[in-house]
């Protein structure tokens, strides 16, 4: 099912407003009312990038990764499924209930002893879009601070070191987004998630430096995006683990497959 540009823009506006007003189980219910599961079935190539990117940009959260993984496994959406985490751990992203203490204290994620392997390609692509959105949110905060903050009589955005950090962050994010757009198979989604995870870590590091001391305070929004990026980066495999996995796949195949038709 194709979606025209105008309809997609209207959908994005509605989703952004919804995510600005709700999070967690409340947002999960709101997305269901907006037809998230129907969108996932009828237009996943548009719905997944849009919803997960906006989750990253707004800082909201909802357990909709479960739906993507369950759909790819051929199961009914709306439930939960154990998900692999970095270091060989397994977690469950609960649909209701209080935040768990396993991975911070703001997401209802609980550790479990083990899980049944399920297809992860679409889930990794979805998480990649979430990480890209979080990276863009951090970059926007750092950019605005650089424009507003004045030192030695001029905005710090005019300093070369600041520009370099912001530019490197933007290049990492744009590169990750390009890999997500091109991802069409298991290896492509694996590499895209690794690139998005690395881009989010780059954004966290550089944007923290640009913001300086204020970026460490609880009053500023940056720390929430940094914390979220660190949690998501390890879900379904960290960038380091996925890179090693991709290398093992290439060695086993004896050749590097063409991932993008140029």
TrEMBL record:
SUPFAM superfamilies: Acyl-CoA dehydrogenase C-terminal domain-like (SSF47203). Keywords: FAD, Flavoprotein, Oxidoreductase. The keyword Oxidoreductase applies. Pfam families: Acyl-CoA_dh_1. Residues 120-238 form the Acyl-CoA dehydrogenase/oxidase C-terminal domain. It comes from the Bacteria. Gene3D superfamilies: Butyryl-CoA Dehydrogenase, subunit A, domain 3 (1.20.140.10). One of its GO terms (molecular function) is acyl-CoA dehydrogenase activity. Signal peptide: none annotated. InterPro entries: AcylCo_DH-like_C, AcylCo_DH/oxidase_C, LisH. The keyword Oxidoreductase applies. This is Acyl-CoA dehydrogenase. It comes from Mycobacterium kyorinense.
């Amino acid at each position: 099912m194709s979606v025209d540009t105008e309809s997609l823009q209207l959908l994005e506006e509605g989703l952004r407003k919804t995510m600005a007003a709700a999070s967690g189980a409340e947002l999960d219910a709101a997305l269901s009312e907006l037809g998230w599961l129907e969108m996932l079935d009828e237009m996943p190539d548009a719905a997944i990038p849009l919803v997960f990117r906006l989750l990253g940009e707004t800082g909201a959260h909802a357990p909709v990764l479960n739906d993507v993984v369950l759909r790819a496994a051929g199961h009914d959406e709306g439930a939960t499924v154990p998900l692999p985490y970095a270091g060989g751990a397994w977690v469950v992203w609960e649909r209701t209930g209080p935040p768990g203490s396993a991975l911070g204290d703001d997401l209802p994620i609980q550790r479990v002893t083990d899980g049944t392997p399920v297809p992860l390609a679409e889930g990794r692509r979805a998480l990649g879009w979430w990480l890209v959105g979080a990276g863009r949110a951090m970059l926007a905060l750092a950019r605005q601070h650089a424009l507003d903050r004045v030192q030695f009589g001029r905005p710090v955005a005019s300093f070369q070191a600041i520009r370099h950090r912001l530019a490197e962050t933007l290049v990492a994010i744009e590169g990750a987004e390009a890999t997500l757009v091109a991802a069409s198979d298991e290896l492509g989604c694996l590499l895209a998630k690794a690139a998005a995870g690395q881009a989010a870590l780059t954004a966290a590091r550089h944007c923290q430096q640009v913001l300086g001391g204020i970026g460490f305070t609880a009053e500023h929004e940056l720390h929430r995006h940094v914390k979220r990026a660190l949690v998501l980066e390890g879900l379904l495999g960290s960038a380091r683990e996925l890179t090693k996995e991709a290398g093992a796949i290439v060695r086993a195949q004896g050749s590097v497959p063409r991932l993008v038709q140029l």
